[in-house]
């Protein structure tokens, strides 16, 4: 089977110039030699590859994705056709058969995604796979003027299970949904119904949403989803299953404000194919990105305010306040205040300063204070030196814990960059006694617009990471890593 | 060994294949909930597609420079379309942020990153330059200060070919 797939893909790629002109694709290859620092045993080599090939002709597109992982451990290895797809696209009609991505509303009911460039590895299975959650089935979308209708049937992927598991075990839920929305005078009104079928039986969900502009400077979005099969439509008791999300946006010239509210109750659907908005800021700073509050859709209420001003001198101020309340018999309140100011020095060098204070009872982090800076020092027209320092301190069960990150790097145009990164921590959850120091270095070289090469050597600190709005666990790593990305 | 050879052959094929990426017509909603198509917005000679996200710092840094390029080339058959790929977690911030950054060109929402995946893109920001027949003639990933000059030179180079 695998040999046939390989032969087919290779034949398509080299067959003829005419055929190649209709082909596009991508390859991501990552080689690692190393180990998990806290696990016994010696270092070993692994290689991961993802090859994607598409053939396009007018409105049609057909393609497949081949994924492979090889290590010295037979049980972790695989070669498989990870995805196949057939798409048809015209202005009024869109059809997808095979593996596809679809989100209903803001993801309260259904969310699928692909995180570009992210490779997922779970500590239990130690096999590596591309980080995505797709659906296997079909979907059709019809558009006419302000009206859109969508239907889908599919089996969502349980992406915590690696491809070494049987496909049927990685897709335990079957969902069928219809959605329609209508736009009139800048207001969009929508409704959806979904049936979930799995080993627990069948359940029904209904969704309604509305969005638009109240004034030119004030916009809104609301979405309510409810399990209507097991609970009365008016039942919003603590036993019922429902999710509500709403936001208001305000914009005045260079000032913007977004206010969001959530109320989720018993709303983890099936194997977890839905993902209501977390309403927790996704930070680019390492100490904050890692400290994120992970949403509990079974029980969470809260809100988030974010305001930003972009001044005429191109400096910018961002302020954020987040509050999330969980009540699992005992109430816990997550709170975070964040401020960031970015500006230029002598219209040449870019600087960013941030400060953050949070309380996170879920992670047992009390009075968490984080601060730091990022600076980009421009040397001439093409070269810049960047430096950053981040500091974090909090109280965990009566013990003071600290995390520090320092990095320095150089960039020459967007073509070449190199960096050194060090981290230090005395957090008792990470190091039982004393403290730990991490040191790593990396290089990135863009050969041309189609190929890029990335290299890392040293020790990388793992932990929770959020990327493109999705959070996952990254494993620690000690060794060398080489990644080659190609597109054609 | 056999596996490594097979994987390497894919890597080589990726380099050998013709650069045939094509932007097919797509329909996405803009910040005012209106459906907009690529055919309706594309430039007469060239179209620049900027894939960005609100949480991506280099993306936000690039936007004032893209605004300037948009003003400069708007009347010369070149259009710029911002494709925002914020997911449900942060999409609420896109409209106020776009207004506060005073983006002058159209911004479309690709909340599920479908267009980005369709074009096999994997970095933020990514700027695609597309000719009048829909062929991708140039791709630029990332943004560091000074890249705006590289982009301007490439626009001028592509326009001079027409």
Characterise the protein shown here.
Chain A is mainly beta. Chain A is built from four helices and 28 strands. In chain A, strand 18 and strand 19 form a beta hairpin. The model of chain A has no long low-confidence stretch (mean pLDDT 92). With 162 residues, chain B is an alpha/beta fold. Chain B has one domain: Glutaredoxin. Helix content of chain B is 39%, strand content 22%. Chain B has six helices and seven strands, in the order H-E-E-H-E-H-E-H-E-H-E-E-H. Chain B has a seven-stranded mixed beta sheet with strand order 2-1-5-4-3-6-7. The radius of gyration of chain B is 17 Å and the shape is globular. The chains are: A mainly beta (488), B alpha/beta (162).
Secondary structure: elements and pairs:
The complex is a heterodimer of chains A (488) and B (162).
Chain A: H1 2-14, H2 17-20, E1 23-35, E2 44-57, E3 60-70, E4 78-89, E5 93-100, E6 113-121, E7 128-133, E8 135-144, E9 147-156, H3 167-170, E10 174-184, E11 187-198, E12 201-215, E13 218-227, E14 242-252, E15 255-265, H4 286-290, E16 299-310, E17 316-327, E18 331-345, E19 349-360, E20 365-379, E21 383-396, E22 399-412, E23 416-425, E24 436-446, E25 451-460, E26 463-467, E27 470-474, E28 477-487
Chain B: H1 2-16, E1 27-30, E2 35-37, H2 38-41, E3 46-52, H3 57-73, E4 78-84, H4 94-100, E5 107-109, H5 114-118, E6 126-131, E7 136-141, H6 147-161
Parallel strand pairs in B: 3-4, 4-5
Antiparallel strand pairs in B: 1-2, 1-5, 3-6, 6-7
């Amino acid at each position: 089977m695998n040999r046939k797939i390989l032969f087919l893909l290779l034949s398509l790629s080299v067959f003829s110039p005419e055929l190649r002109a209709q082909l596009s694709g991508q390859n991501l290859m990552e080689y690692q030699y190393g180990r998990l620092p806290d696990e016994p045993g010696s270092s070993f080599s692994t290689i991961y590859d993802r090859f994607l090939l598409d053939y396009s002709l007018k409105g049609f597109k057909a393609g497949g994705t081949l994924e492979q992982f090889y290590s010295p451990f037979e049980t972790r290895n695989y070669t498989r056709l990870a995805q196949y797809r057939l798409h048809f696209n015209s202005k009024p009609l869109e059809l997808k058969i095979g593996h596809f991505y679809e989100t209903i509303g803001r993801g309260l009911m259904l969310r699928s995604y692909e995180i570009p460039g992210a490779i997922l590895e779970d500590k239990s299975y130690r096999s590596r796979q591309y980080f995505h959650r797709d659906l296997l089935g079909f979907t059709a979308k019809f558009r006419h003027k302000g009206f859109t209708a969508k239907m889908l049937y599919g089996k969502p992927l349980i992406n915590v299970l690696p491809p070494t598991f049987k496909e049927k075990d990685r897709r335990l839920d079957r969902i069928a949904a219809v959605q329609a929305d209508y736009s009139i005078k800048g207001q969009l009104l929508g409704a959806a119904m979904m049936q979930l079928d799995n080993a627990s039986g069948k359940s029904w969900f209904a969704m309604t949403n509305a969005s638009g502009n109240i004034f030119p400077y004030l916009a809104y979005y609301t979405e309510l989803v409810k399990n209507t099969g097991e609970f009365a439509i008016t039942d919003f008791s603590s036993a019922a299953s429902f999710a509500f999300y709403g936001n208001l946006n305000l914009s005045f010239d260079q000032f913007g404000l977004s206010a969001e509210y959530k109320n989720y109750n018993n709303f983890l659907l099936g194997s977890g194919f839905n993902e209501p908005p977390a309403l927790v800021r996704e930070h680019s700073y390492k100490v904050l990105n890692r400290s994120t509050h992970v949403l509990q859709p079974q029980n969470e209420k809260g809100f988030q305010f974010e305001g930003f001003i972009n001044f005429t001198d191109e400096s910018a101020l961002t302020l954020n306040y987040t509050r999330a309340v969980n009540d699992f018999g005992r109430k816990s309140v997550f709170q975070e205040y964040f401020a960031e100011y970015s500006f230029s020095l002598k219209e040449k060098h870019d600087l960013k300063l941030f400060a953050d204070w949070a309380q996170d009872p879920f992670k047992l982090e009390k009075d968490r204070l984080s601060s730091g800076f990022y600076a980009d020092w421009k040397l001439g027209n093409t070269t810049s030196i960047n430096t950053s320092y981040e500091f974090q301190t909090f109280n965990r069960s009566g013990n003071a814990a600290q995390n520090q990150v320092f990095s320095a790097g150089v960039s020459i145009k967007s073509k070449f960059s190199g960096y050194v990164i060090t981290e230090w921590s005395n957090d008792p959850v990470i190091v039982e006694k004393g403290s730990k120091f991490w040191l790593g270095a990396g290089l990135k070289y863009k050969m041309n617009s189609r190929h890029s090469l990335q290299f890392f050597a040293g020790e990388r600190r793992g932990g929770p990471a959020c990327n493109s709005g999705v959070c996952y666990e990254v494993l620690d790593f000690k060794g060398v890593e080489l990644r080659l990305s190609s597109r054609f | 060994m056999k596996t490594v050879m097979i994987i390497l052959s894919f890597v080589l094929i990726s380099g050998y294949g013709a650069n045939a990426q094509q932007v097919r017509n797509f329909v996405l909603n803009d910040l005012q909930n209106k459906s907009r198509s690529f055919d309706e917005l594309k430039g007469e000679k060239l179209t620049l597609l900027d894939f960005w996200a609100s949480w991506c710092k280099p993306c936000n840094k690039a936007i004032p420079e893209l605004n300037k390029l948009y003003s400069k080339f708007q009347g010369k058959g070149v259009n710029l379309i911002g494709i925002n790929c914020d997911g449900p977690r942060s999409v609420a911030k896109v409209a106020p942020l776009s207004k506060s950054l005073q983006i002058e060109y159209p911004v479309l929402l690709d909340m599920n990153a479908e267009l980005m995946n369709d074009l096999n893109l994997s970095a933020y920001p990514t700027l695609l330059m597309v000719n009048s027949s829909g062929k991708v003639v140039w791709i630029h990933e990332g943004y560091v200060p000074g890249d705006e000059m590289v982009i301007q030179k490439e626009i001028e180079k592509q326009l001079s070919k027409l």
